[in-house]
Structures are given as structure tokens and as C-alpha cells.
Amino acid sequence: PLDITAVPGDVPTPTNISMRCFPNPFNPRVTIELNVGNNAGEVTVEVYDLRGKKVRTLHQGTLPEGLRHGMTWNGQNDNDENLASGVYLVQVKSGSQSVGQKITLVR
């Protein structure tokens, strides 16, 4: 299951996307915290394997600007099947901006 929440607190509003994933390596789930800046618009959060194949779309739509957002990924693909241990790339895109981070799933 996917859980997206705004994280309370006084968060400065950056102009660029920022993201952190923890814990890393992870099992059974990883938390993805992101700030989409002050001109967010449409935001896509996707997970790719190292061959470049998209394995999961975590979010596609708008997120309120200027807030830190949190979501979790449970190591499953879009068909809710468990993925193998390995390195994956979390990519966040908004407009012309994109940021990625490698994460390691350990089963």
C-alpha cells in the first residue's frame, strides 16, 4: 500500500526538487521524503530497475508546493508482486526538473 502524507513542521521552500530515501538498504519498506519546491505542478515518482525498466509508479499527479511529502514503497511492482533483492532507482520528475536516488532492497 502507498501512503502519501505532508510532513508537519517549518520547512523552507526550495526552488528545486529535493529527495531522500531511508533506510537504505531497506527491508521491507523504504520511506521517500521529497520537497517539490514552489513551482511543482504535475509530479511523478517512479521506481526503475538497473536495466531502466519502470517497475512501480508511486505517484502521478499534483502535490501541494512548499511542503515536504512522505511516501513509502514496499518493494513490490505495479502488479503487487515482490521484487528481487537488488539496486533500484527512485526518480522524481516535475516539469523540467528531475532527481534520482539509488536504493537497495535486501530480502
Strand content is over 45%
Which consecutive residue ranges, at least 5 long each, have pLDDT under 50? none
Number of helices: 0
Distance between the termini: 18 Å
- Order of strands, main sheet, comes to 1-6-3-2
What is the H/E string? EEEEEEEE
**What form results from the Cα inertia axes?**
globular
Total count of strands = 8
Q: Structural class of the secondary elements?
A: mainly beta
Report the helical percentage.
under 10%
Query: What's the mean pLDDT score?
Result: 87
How is the main sheet built? 4 strands, antiparallel
* Radius of gyration (Å): 13 Å
Walkthrough of the structure:
With 107 residues, the protein is mainly beta. The protein contains no helices and 8 strands. The protein has a 4-stranded antiparallel sheet with strand order 1-6-3-2, with no helix packed on it. The two termini are 18 Å apart. The mean pLDDT is 87.
Topology, please?
Elements: E1 5-7, E2 18-22, E3 30-35, E4 42-49, E5 54-62, E6 68-73, E7 86-94, E8 97-105
Antiparallel strand pairs: 1-6, 2-3, 3-6, 4-5, 4-7, 7-8
